[in-house]
Design a protein that fits this description.
Number of strands: 11
Number of domains: 1
Mean pLDDT: 88
Shape: globular
Strand content: 5-15%
Radius of gyration: 21 Å
CATH topology: Rossmann fold
Structural class: alpha/beta
Largest sheet: 7 strands, parallel
CATH superfamily: NAD(P)-binding Rossmann-like Domain
Helix content: 25-40%
Order of helices and strands: HEHEEEHEHEEHEEHEHEHHHH
Number of helices: 11
CATH class: Alpha Beta
Distance between the termini: 53 Å
């Protein structure tokens, strides 16, 4: 267990020295000071205080949501099983239960808004949505970009087909299709009380999936870095704090709708992303770009990258224009990289020796030798 102060310190929320940063990407110019981040809902007058129920609240996204909502003057209640990060937020009301069967702690209570952070199975969402529908004004469900049936579509908008093409709903399985079914049961229970956000890859300090952090840590280590595809291939993700601030903005303004929540605002290439990471860490990292055929032949997978052609052509080219029009804003990339790196450096070194995704150092070195030998 960690207390609130140590949690904030680990996420770099307390003050710390800025890492010198700069890159060839326009939003990360070393000649310019890094602006203080401002969320979509952080401008103008303070909002009217809301009573917010968060279903979850102690994983990766949840603690950011709790901290930001409290800074905005809202009153929070967390509902979860009471098993993860139980030492966090001792002054926030907690209700203990299980979405797989025991939601009695929610009965007879009213909240202005509900933030559904943890719905994965349709029956979980159905149970909470039906129970809470008469007792809340707005229910925000966090879905995913993985709900879309066709990931080849460039500029995918929120009206795209969901689930699995050609498969009856009774046969849908896996993270994305199940989230699509969650959306369906939420709509049935809540109607126009429902708002849905579909994030892309969520990144930043505290991220345990390692998809973005792999590149931050690997670039910081320096040397010859195995990089996928072509430096001009697109990449998309959203800083957890930008996603959090946008979701609170939607709740504060009582905005209905469905929103793709990803970034950045302008097209970002994989090469530019690695440039920023190298400059922020001040390392000597140099990418060696290997093609998909080589990765397929060697059963090598690298996080964030998807081939910008065929079935995954649209994976890193989703349209977030609707969310941007509704108030989604972005931190500069070097701020996200800096804060993620500072957090990563507080973790035990062994945490990064074999990450949840990507390559071990030994495997990467082996593949780089094979790649260079094949070029001779």
């Amino acid at each position: 267990m960690i207390n609130r102060r140590s949690f904030l310190e680990r996420l770099g929320i307390t003050g710390s020295a800025l890492i010198a940063a700069g890159s060839s990407w326009g939003c990360a110019d070393a000649e310019q000071p890094m602006p203080e981040p401002r969320g979509a809902g952080s401008t103008g007058e303070s909002p009217a205080p809301l009573r917010i129920l968060i279903l979850g609240g102690t994983g990766f996204i949840g603690p950011h949501q709790v901290e930001y909502a409290r800074s905005r003057g809202h009153t929070l209640t967390l509902f979860n099983r009471g098993r993860t990060n139980t030492g966090l937020f001792p002054n926030v009301e907690r209700l203990v239960g299980d979405r797989n069967g025991d939601v009695t702690a929610l009965e007879g209570r009213e909240w202005d808004v509900v933030l559904d952070n943890s719905g994965y199975e349709p029956q979980q969402v159905k149970a909470t949505a039906e129970l809470l529908q008469p007792n809340t004004r707005r229910y925000l469900f966090i879905s995913t970009q993985a709900v879309y049936a066709d990931r080849s579509i460039v500029g995918q908008e929120e009206t795209g087909a969901l689930g699995i093409t050609g498969v009856p709903k009774s046969g849908w399985d896996g993270y994305g299709p199940l989230k699509a079914l969650c959306e369906e049961v939420a709509h049935a229970a809540l109607g126009d009380q429902l708002t849905i956000v579909r994030p892309g890859v969520v990144v930043g300090p505290g991220d345990g999936t390692d998809r973005f952090t792999y590149w931050v840590v690997r670039t910081d280590r320096g040397g010859d870095v195995m990089a996928p595809g072509d430096p001009n291939d697109p990449v998309q993700f959203i800083d957890v704090r930008d996603a959090t601030e946008f979701m609170l903005h939607l709740l504060e303004q009582d905005i209905v709708g469905t929103f793709n929540v990803t970034g950045p605002a302008e097209v970002l290439t994989f090469g530019s992303m690695l440039d920023v990471m190298r400059d922020v860490s001040a390392s000597d990292a140099q990418p060696t770009w290997v093609d998909q055929a080589f990765m397929d032949e060697n059963d090598a997978s690298l996080p964030l990258w998807r081939a910008p052609s065929g079935a995954t052509e649209g994976f890193n080219r989703m349209n977030a224009g609707r969310a941007q029009a509704a108030g989604l804003t972005y931190r500069p990339l070097n701020v996200t990289v800096r804060d993620t790196l500072e957090w990563a450096r507080t973790e035990p070194p062994q945490r990064w020796s074999e990450m949840r995704v990507g390559l071990t150092g030994e495997r990467e070195a082996e593949l780089l030798r094979a790649w260079h030998d094949s070029r001779v």
